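Fill in residues.
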């Protein structure tokens, strides 16, 4: 399973999303758009035009932003998605 997350270091939503993934012991590949601004266009394309960070992908498919990630967690769906994508 591959989790990718596009972030910016000053983004509180990025920190929240990474914290949730870390608490759940879910390893992820982080792409810092400040260090690698050339990845921004790729992120927007992959996320269907969404431009905010974080944008999170699982196995090369769009998963969610931070609010959506917490929604999935709070409704018990995140664990199921993770399990299905192992």
């Amino acid at each position: 399973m591959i989790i990718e997350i596009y972030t910016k270091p000053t983004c509180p939503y990025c920190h929240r999303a990474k914290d949730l993934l870390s608490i759940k012991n879910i390893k992820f590949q982080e792409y810092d758009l400040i260090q690698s601004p050339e990845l921004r266009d790729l992120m927007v394309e992959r996320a269907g035009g969404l431009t905010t960070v974080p944008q999170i992908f699982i196995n090369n498919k769009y998963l969610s932003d931070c609010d959506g990630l917490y929604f999935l967690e709070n409704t018990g769906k995140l664990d199921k998605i993770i399990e299905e994508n192992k």
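The chain has a mean pLDDT of 97.
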